[in-house]
Amino acid sequence: MNNEAVSNLEHKLKNGLFVFTSELGPPNGVTIDDLKTKVQILKELVTAANVSDLQGSNLSLNPVSVSHILTDLGLEPVMQITCRDRNRLALQSDILSAYVLGIRNILCLTGDYVTIGNHPQAKPVFDLDSVTLLCVIKKLEDGFDMVGNELKGKPHFFKGAAVNPEADSKASFELQLIKMKKKVECGAEFFQTMPVFNVDKFKVFTDRVKELNINVPIIAGIQLIKSEKMANYLNKYIPGICVPQWITDKIAKAQNKVDMSINIAAGIINNIKPFCSGIHIGAQGWEQHIPALIKNIDME
Q1: CATH classification of 8-295, choosing from 2.40.128.120, 3.40.50.720, 3.20.20.220, 3.40.920.10?
Q2: DSSP assignment string, the chain
Q3: Which one of 94, 147, 153, 286 is separated from 87 by 20 to 30 angstroms, measured CA to CA?
Q4: Which residues, in sequence order, are CB contacts of 270 under 8 Å at separation 6+?
Q5: pTM for the full model?
C-alpha cells in the first residue's frame, strides 16, 4: 500500500459522499474462519469496518493484527484504539505499527472499564484519554513522538472520535459537545456516534453541532437489537446506551425478530439520514442481515 495513500473512507467523507460502515469484533481465539466469512459479506456493502479493541473489556485478538487481516482481504478497516489497556509508550508503538501495516483509519476511544468485561480482575491503565490520544497522533503526524523525539518518517491517519448524541441529561449532553470541540481541535476528522434510537434527540444534537460550527462529518450509529434480552443487557451494562422500552416491547412480541429488528433500524436510518454523513451499523453476529437492512434504506 502506498504510504501516502488516502483511505477510501477519508476520500468519500471529504467529498460529501454518504457512507455505510459496520463493526467487526475480533475473535477471542486464533481461529479466524468466521471473521473471513463476515468480511466476504461486508466488503461489497460498506466503505469500511470498525475493528474493535477488546470491546466491552472482553478478551479478543489485537485490533492491529485483525485490521491488517482485513486489508489483506480487501475490506478497509477503521482500527479502534482504547486507552484502557496501554500506557503512552504502547499506544504510540501500536499506532506506528498499524501505519506500517497499511492501516489508515483510526478511531480513538478512552475505553470501557474492565469491571464490565470477562477479566474484571485486570488492572486498567488509562494513562491517556481519547482527547489526549488524538493530540498525540497529530504530533506523530508532524514527525515527533509525545516527548519531542524525531521520528524516522511521518504517518498519516484519518482520525475519528466517538460522541453520544443521546446523553441522559442536559449537562452531560453539553459536555459531549464541549468534548467534540476539543477533539476537533486535537485533530478529529470524523465522528461515529453511539447507537441512535431517538430521532428527535439526534436532530437536536445535529442542530447544536451546526450552531457550534463543528464542521466534521458525523456517522450515526445504528444497533440491530436481536432480542429483549440483548436490549436489557445493553441498558444495564453498556455505558451511554439506552434502548427505549418501545423497541424492547416490539422485539419481545415479534414472531420474526430479525424482520422486526431490521424494520426498526431501517425506520430510524431513513429519518436521521438527512442529518448525517453516514451510518455505522452494529450487527454483533447478524452481519448476514446487513444486506437486507441496506435494501430497506431509501437512498434517493
Answers
A1: 3.20.20.220
A2: --TTPPPHHHHHHHTT--EEEEEEPPPSSS--HHHHHHHHHHTTT-SEEEE-SSGGG-----HHHHHHHHHHHT--EEEEEESSS--HHHHHHHHHHHHHTT--EEEEE----GGGSS-TTSPP--SS-HHHHHHHHHHHHTTB-TTSPBPSS----EEEEEE-TT-SSHHHHHHHHHHHHHHHHTT--EEEEEEP--HHHHHHHHHHHHHTT--S-EEEEEE----HHHHHHHHHHSTT----HHHHHHHHH-SSHHHHHHHHHHHHHHHHGGGSSEEEEE-TT-GGGHHHHHHTS---
A3: 153
A4: 297, 298
A5: 0.95
Cell of 136: 498525540
| Residue pair 203/163 in contact by the 8 Å Cβ criterion | no
Query: Which residue's entry shows cell 424494520?
Result: 263
Domain ranges of the chain: 8-295
Distance CA 45, CA 265 (A): 16
pLDDT tens, per residue, the chain with 300 residues: 445 679 999 999 999 999 999 999 999 999 999 999 999 999 999 999 999 999 888 999 999 999 999 999 999 999 999 999 999 999 999 999 999 999 999 999 999 889 888 899 999 999 999 999 999 999 999 999 999 999 999 999 999 999 999 998 899 999 999 999 999 999 999 999 999 999 999 999 999 999 999 999 999 999 999 999 999 999 988 888 899 999 999 999 999 999 999 999 999 999 999 999 999 999 988 999 999 999 999 886
